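Work package 3, deliverable 3.1, input record:
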Amino acid sequence: MRTGIGRQSGTAEPRPETSPPRSGAPAPRPRRRAGDLPVAMVFLLPAAVGFAAFYLWPALRTAYLSFTDYSLLAPPEWAGLDNYRRLLGDRLFWNSLKVTVEYVVINIGVQTIAALGMAVLMHRLTRSGLIRGVLLLPYLVANVVVALIWYTMLDAQLGIVNQALEWIGLDPVAFFGETSTAIPTIALVNVWRHVGYTALLLFAGLQAIPKTVYEAAATDGASEARMFWRITMPLLRPALALVLVLTVIGSFQIFDTVAVTTKGGPINATRVIYYYIYEQAFQRFNFGYAAAVCVALFAILAGLALLQLKLLRAGDSDLD
Amino acid sequence: MSDTLRRLSLRRTAAWAILVLFILITLLPFYWMLRISLSNNRTLFANPGSLMPTDFTFGAFKRVLGIATLAEATAEGGSGAKIDFWRYLANSVVTSAVITVCQVFFSAMAAYAFARLRWPGREKVFFVFLTALMIPPIFTALPNFVTVKQLGLLNTYAGIVLPYLFMTPFAVFFLRQFFLNISREVEEAAIVDGAGHAHIFFRLIVPMSSAPIATISLLVYIGAWNEYFWPLLVGQEDDVRVLTVALGIFRAQSPQAGPDWSGLMAATLLAALPVIALFTVFGRWIVNSIQFSGIK
């Protein structure tokens, strides 16, 4: 993955302020000597205002609100650990967590395998930018659009998917309307939207693997399968790890598809954690409690990211 | 030997078949949306499996764009659900454009400070900016909603664009990467000539980075266009409602019995069209930039 975070060479080293000017070098410019702090502050001002007002302060405020009772109508009232105590005993919270995890497992499981297949196929078969572009297309249209297209295609009466099931002699399925199928359906719809994008990221990782490794293996008569397990997988691991961390975190934040199609139902089958927070905050105006759920979600995501990075040893590559 | 070759080409054919299958699965839903939007909603139920539009008509598009009479609409199975498409389109265009211009400009300024200027604590401040990438949007959405409400900006354009106006960590990060790679010599020559930082930024750095700036603008525009959660919170009312929110409401309003599928798909297609058009023109850029940046 070429995130390039470490690519700061050439500018990161401090200006040699005290070193004597080399002979023949132009005289030091006094304006640069003091550093560019005043100018930098001007250039940073708008972004810093935005960062402070819409990231830093609200993040701290959510943490604070989670210890209060706040309904938007009156100022927040300190409530200590009440919200967290309530959280522990809230059946709907635990259900939302369970439903979300179910979604993430299906979504990430299918998506990662399919994307890996797509990326390897593209890598071995074609350099076509058009194919990559086509596979990326679903990622560029809105979640809402994707949800509505599939909502239509999966409709019990006129949906093409049920029609196809009928052709092969199966009973129609009420995809969004059944407690047992709603979450897998939503998970697979979003696989469709994200799989090309994920494949593209993995494809970039594959391109970083030196061709010579494959050529050497081919001369040794290694089979495709053997090359995949012995070369591609180990060398792709750092990229795969990063992709997994990003997609898992993204996957936990499923909201749009649920909001447009099932609205949490049938019963509580798709009341995912994001939707639960939305309901608590914006339909019941329990802002304090919703903030506590946010904090819990954040803790889960942070813990998960750390765990993944540790397990998958994302930092070091087998190439060295 | 020829046996191995045949097996090899057979395997290659199979691999291509799978890739083509992936492409078909990707494209079929888009075709299906088009097919239903061009169908007569009344006859749709009779032929759910036909590959062509049933009873080909532009009626659904006319209903959505508000140029069909009530009689025409009901004749083709339109429901009572109304969508004031032009207004929502204008709202989406305006809010996305304002977000893009401001966010890219301010992020470029910040990226310049992080990439080209030297000041104490620079890397630390940049790291703090980056941590904002880790915060899930909902974590800041609650207090941001309170802020916008207290400023009296609920159901205004300003409220919809405000949190995205100044920066996103991604835009700053993305542009900084490109600014870092610009050769220092050009800049030094300008400094020797007595140019100030404003001059360097506007006349050198920005023009030299026009390609990445165009790419990030495109990504920001598409992102803003597709955004649902935030405008749902602060822009429910009709006169500021953006397309994504309108589509959600349109779908919720359509009756359970006999919904206007053609109308729904026509509206959905129209809402997706600008992005698909942008992509057809600039697709290569987007593909390359996603491969380059990795994050988004």
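Residues 85-293 of chain B form a domain with the MetI-like fold fold (CATH 1.10.3720.10).
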